[in-house]
Amino acid sequence: MSDDTGWAAPGGRHPLPLPGYGPPPGAAAGPPSGPGWSPPPSPGLMPLHPLGFGTLLGIPFRELRRNPRPVVGTSLIVQAVVMIASLFVTGAVGLTAYDRVAMAAPAERATVLSGAVAGFVLSLLVPVVLGLLGSAFLQGVIVADVARGTLGERLSLRQLWHAARRRLAPLVGWVLLLAAGITVLVAAVAAIVWLSLTAGGPAMIIGIVAAVFVGIAALIVGVWLYVKTSLVPCLIVLERRGVRSSLGRSWLLTGGLFWRMFGVQALVAVIVNAISQVATTPLGLAVGIVGGIVAPTGSAAGGGGAESGTGRAALIALYAATLLVTLLVSALTTVVQSAAVAVLYLDARMRKEGLALHLTRYVEERAAEREDPPDPFETPAAGAAPKGSSGEVS
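Predicted structure:
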């Protein structure tokens, strides 16, 4: 039997209706005679199946539009607090040190200056510590939002902060470990370069060449280690693991997916850095032009007329605008890059562990209003089995 187009399904049956369309003309009423195909569910931020490379690149930017107030708002708040607190502490210490040096007696000025410089250098640790804390907290917030957004949920600011605060200690531990590793690697390369430059004669040339190769090798090793351990924040937040357990599991999950993960993270970094340059470069050029007009000799002390006052006011306004734009761009960049890591984590588990089935089951149980469905992201290996689970590993 054929339809109006002359085409017949195998066995003479009418073809199955397409989704959204009725049965073919003349088809008998009732259920279809064969199984139909339906696309994998996509209840939220991303489809519940392994993702293509282009989709992996697009989803982190979609995260900015999906739940902007809690996510971007949190990033802005944290970045602003870190920036203001850092400026306040370093500015206060710097002004105090300057006053002490200016009021010191000539005989004691060298001693006072040494103490002032030491105090100012120590004050620079405050921005570093605050930045590490802020980075750890933001990673927890964004990972939690991406994971729940995949299930079609929109968490409030309070819920996101609660999820990040519960895992803040291991997140801070991981960020400190990462910072220590980077510091050791950079210090080792710097020491090799310094020894090469201080060597005399032909040994200096050989040392410089060796230092270049060591620097390149250190960069390659650093990037490799970073990608292999990049899933640690996701494991700490979603699977509630410790730092050591997360390191081992991140190493396993990234196995066979290194170039995929490296490519996505590298391209996202290039894109957000290009956007950042486009947003901040015009303001930087404007600051330089206005600064050259207001203080052409490099000193703003000269000139006290109305034009000079207007120029200084314009320069201050441009500085403030540059600061605000930089703050906004930094907040958006942090969201996109952290979201990219979270999406890579979900994709790796869907490819290797069938996480998509667990997520689909969770969505179906939630739609059926089942009480307290188990968390689909936790694994029993992280500690106690999730409540209501049967003990299988996701």
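Summary: Residues 1-24, 26-34, 298-307, 382-394 have pLDDT under 50 and may be disordered.
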